[in-house]
Amino acid sequence: MAVNSLRRAIVIALPAAALAQSEGVLELHVVARRFRFDPETLRVRAGVPVLLRLTSPEVPMGFNLPDFGVRTDIVPGKEAQLRFTPQRTGQFTFLCDVFCGNGHENMSGTLEVHG
C-alpha cells in the first residue's frame, strides 16, 4: 500500500513529465528544444535513483547538472540517458552547456529534491 501511495504522490507532483517507476528507479523524459527544457522543473525524492531520458528534436544540446556531477550531450534523433541518485534535498539548476543559438544562455531548469 505504501508503494502505491508513493507512486500516486509522485505522479501528482510531476504532471508535466512523462514518468515511470520500475525496480525503484524513477524515469523522467525531458525534451530539449529551442532554448528551453520541457519540463523545466523536475521533482524527485532524495535517495530514489533517477533515470533521465533526454531528447532533442532540433539541434545538438547539452544537459549539465553540476551539483550532482552529471552531464551528457543530446544528439537530435537519439536518446541520451543519465542515471544518478540525489542524496541532498533542495533546488538545483541544470542547464544546456552546448551552444545552440542566440538565447542559449537562458536555457536552464530546476531539479527539486524533496526528502
Automatic annotation (TrEMBL):
It is found in: Periplasm. It comes from the Bacteria. Its main location: periplasm. GO terms for molecular function: copper ion binding; cytochrome-c oxidase activity. Residues 23-115 form the Cytochrome oxidase subunit II copper A binding domain. Pfam families: Cupredoxin_1. SUPFAM superfamilies: Cupredoxins. Keywords: Copper, Metal-binding. One of its GO terms (cellular component) is membrane. PANTHER family: CYTOCHROME C OXIDASE SUBUNIT II, NITROUS-OXIDE REDUCTASE. This is Cytochrome c oxidase subunit II. It comes from Ramlibacter pinisoli.
